[in-house]
Amino acid sequence: MSLADKAKHFPDKPGVYLFRGARGEVLYVGKAVSLRSRVRSYFTGAQDNKVQALVGRAADVECIVTGTDIEALILESNLIKEYRPRYNVLLKDDKSYPYLKVTVQEEYPRVFLTRTQPRDGARYFGPYPSAGAVHETLRLLKKLFPLRTCRQVRFANGRPCLNFHIGRCLGPCRGTVDPDEYRALVQEVLLFLEGRHTDLVHGLTRKMEAAAANLEFERAAELRDQLEAVNQVLARQNIVSERREDQDVMALARDGDRGRAVVLEIRGGKLLGQHSLAVQGIADRTDAEVLAAFIKQYYREAGFVPPEVLLTTPLGEEQGLIAEWLGLRRGARVRLHVPRRGRKRELVRMAEKNAALAREQMRFERSADAALAELAALLGLEEPPIRLEAFDISNIQGAQTVGAMVVFESGRPARDEYRRFKVQNRKTPDDYAAMREVVGRRFTRGREENKLIAEGRMSSKEARFHRLPDLVLIDGGKGQLGAALEAMRRTGYGEIPVFGLAKEEEQVFAPGGPEPLPVPRDSQALYLLQHLRDEAHRFAVTYHREARSREGLRSLLDEIDGIGPARRRALQKAFPSLKAVKAATIEELAAVPSMNRKAARAVYDYFHGAG
Question: Is residue 382 part of a domain?
Answer without folding.
Answer: no
